[in-house]
Amino acid sequence: MENNKSNDILDDYIDKEYEFGFVTDIEMEVAPKGLNEDTIHFISAKKEEPQWLRDWRMKAYHSFLKQPEPTWQNFELPKVDFQAISYYAAPKSGAKYKSLDEVDPALLETFEKLGIPLSEQKLLSGVAVDAVFDSVSVATTFKETLKEHGVIFCSISEAVKEHPELVQKYLGSVVPYSDNLYAALNAAAFSDGSFVYIPKGVRCPMELSTYFRINTQNTGQFERTLIIADEGSYVSYLEGCTAPKRDENQLHAAVVELIALDHAEIKYSTVQNWYPGDKDGKGGIYNFVTKRGVCKGAHAKISWTQVETGSAITWKYPSVILQGDHSSGEFYSVAVTRNKQVADTGTKMFHIGKNTRSRIISKGISAGEGQNTYRGLVQVGSKAENARNFTQCDSLLIGDRCGAHTFPYIESKNNTAMIEHEATTSKIGEDQLFYLNQRGIETEKAVALIVNGYAREVLNQLPMEFAVEAQKLLSISLEGSVG
Amino acid sequence: MLSIKNLQAGIDGKQILKGINLEVNAGEVHAIMGPNGSGKSSLASVLAGRETYEVTGGEVIFDGKNLLDLSVEDRAREGLFLAFQYPIEIPGVSNINFLRTALNEIRAYRQEPPMDAKEFLRMTKEKQQLVEFDAKLVNRSLNEGFSGGEKKRNEIFQLAMLEPKLAILDETDSGLDIDALRIVSNGVNKLRSDKNAFVVITHYQRLLEYIVPDFVHVLYNGRIVKSGTKELALELEERGYDWIKEPAYSNS
Fold it and tell me: Which residues of A253-387 form beta strands (DSSP E)?
């Protein structure tokens, strides 16, 4: 009875419009479709890259050609025609801006519409932003302020030129180009992304943030982010993303690498709101991403927090290699799937050093015909004395046409390890809704309250500036899911 | 304030309320008693608008409006409050955030501006003291991990905060020890005024020693079979319910 009711009311509601579905009309330089050696040369030439990077890309391309398609995922892998995608799209007005005055006003306006003002007088205080539009970074704010603290925050293209020693040392050191099909594709064809270096002992004075925007049709976005936190440093970094509404699927295959040295801490947060497709599952972004961090030094700490509400398919496992003794890794996730969205996400925690700790909190929310999978691996190596892991994965179902699936994998080679796993599945009950309705709260608000309460432990991990946004996003993306 | 005429309702075709008549005026406290399964809680649910019940006949006028035409939330916003027999737990949602949302939804319906944070906190403190509700519970997740007694006391705290015109207390005394019963009753007594009314549903006369009703009604087999003053409750306590089940006393 309860299910029928939820479904009836669900059907009564029309789709909530995707708020960021507009297209920016700007003249673009777009590379011809298709991927071959010429494409790689074209991108390298555009970016005036050094030979070592050109060679690395070429090796990645050949690895890509040999990689099989994964078969283990809990959804039908759509056939992606890699030759139908254009791998480079940049505003014609020039990809390298010396200052904001040179940036095309249409671009500034685009980011403003997305709530990311880039002009000096409107900057979000306390947050430095790198804005990436299709294949290029258009602006990075607060660069000078950060420089005073020795913090490097720029596009990765710029870092290749300005800080080649750091990029060459760490690029591909956590996610090798041969890691998987999409990581190989990214290494071969990545066009831009963000680079962060925090020097020894520095606590980064502001939040760093990258905003990714896909705009051009039939392109893919392949950005690469590299964050290095030197000994005893701290940084909190956040990425956000949106794309226009289009009937065709678009591929987003990013790679993120984090390196935390002795006593360093990296907090990486994602608020992912790529276009999810329409209610029949037409269009939307394929979000196939490889994210991995390494706690290289003792007492290092890496924490991933993600709020995933967009994309037709979200497929990623932000992971931590706990190499240093006493290092710790955390993964906090809220993934929402509605209509025909699919999420297969989770994490991998590799305990290598002694006394390493990991904590995994995953909250899946499925509505409509959405499918939500948690997949997680906790691996304890033979030398990881006293490793500790705590995993909790909860699933919340709204209606009875959606699905929640949990695949926890545990591999321990050390008998001093302590691994705890808790899992729950619940439904938003008619009783809960009736109770809130009876206090004068309408159903949509009631659902938002219940969902935000359910996800609170994860939302609490987000930097304050973004927690409110994320809360709103959760409410909006579930609007109309229940009566 | 509330006028129920020949109200009939059931679940899945099974009739539970078979023609209820009841008039409640501002300033009055009505007690509804009756044996298990007589339809007491069903009456409360139907008035609040729980969708599992189907209304098959009769009408309910609340403050001049046809109550049965209103959604659950609009009934609440019009000033109808149900203190639940089994209050629901909502993990992660703080009691205070929930109450603020509820209060402002009700205010918006009445075209009043949202209450500012300072005034809201002042009111919370005042009401929490009035009904002797533990300040620590105010900031906890809504009913999560509360004891049975704490949940019931939270219902009275919410009642104090939302200031409804009509409060229906559905077996609020069940599961309460004598101290909690006294605190809950004191709370209700402090909230009584000539502007509001209470319908107190209970199985036992004990609660009515603390909350003294103006009228007592006996519900049996979906109908009110006997009405009287507080003395009727004492008589029920003494004689049980069997005597009112005799056909002679039935008004059908």
Answer: 255-260, 265-272, 284-295, 301-308, 313-316, 319-322, 328-337, 342-351, 357-367, 371-380
For the four alpha carbons of A273, A275, A278 and A283, in that order, the dihedral sign comes to: negative
Tell me the β-bridge partners of A195.
A154, A226
Higher pLDDT, A4 or B156: B156
Is the CB of B91 inside 8 Å of chain A's CB atoms? yes
Rounded Cα distance, A194 and A163, in Å: 13
Buried b / exposed e over B130-162, threshold 16 CB at 10 Å, is bbbbeeebbebbbbeebeebbbbbbbbbbbbbb
Which parts of A380-437 fold into alpha helices (H)? 430-437
Residue spans of alpha helices (H) in chain B: 40-48, 72-77, 95-109, 117-130, 135-138, 148-162, 178-191, 206-210, 230-239, 242-245
Of B49, B109, B158, the CB nearest to A439: B158
DSSP element (H, E) containing A181: helix A181-189
Q: E strands within A156-233? A: 194-198, 207-213, 224-229
CB of B123 less than 8 A from some CB of A: no
Closest CA to B23 of B215, B225, B165: B215
Q: Does A467 touch chain B (CB under 8 A)?
A: no
* Residue A160: its H or E element: helix A156-162
**Residue A255: pLDDT above 80?**
yes
Take residue B147 and report the two structure tokens written for it: 């004891």
**What DSSP string describes A226-250?**
EEEE-TT-EEEEEEEEE----SSEE
Cβ-nearest to A453 among B77, B82, B92: B92
Rounded Cα distance, A89 and B97, in Å: 46
Q: Please give the Cα distance from B76 to B72 (Å, whole number).
A: 7
- Quickly tell me which residue has 């003792």 as its tokens: A298
pLDDT at B54 over 70: yes
Q: Contact A131/A119 with Cβ under 8 angstroms?
A: no
d(CA A142, CA A42): 31
**What span, in angstroms and rounded, lies between the C-alpha atoms of B46 and B39?**
10
Q: A430 CA to chain B: closest CA distance, Å?
A: 9
Residue contact B90–A441, C-beta within 8 A: no
Q: Where are the domains of chain A?
A: 24-433
Cα B119 versus chain centre, distance: 27
Q: Please say whether the dihedral angle defined by the alpha carbons of residues B91, B94, B99 and B100, taken in this order, is positive or negative.
A: negative
Inspect the interface and report whether the beta carbons of B102 and A440 lie closer than 8 Å: yes
- Closest-CA residue of chain A to B51: A434
Q: Read off the pLDDT of residues A432-474 as tens digits, 9 standing for 90 and up.
A: 999 999 999 998 889 888 888 888 888 888 877 677 777 777 7
CATH, range B2-251: 3.40.50.300
| ipTM (interface pTM) | 0.95
Domain locations along chain B: 2-251
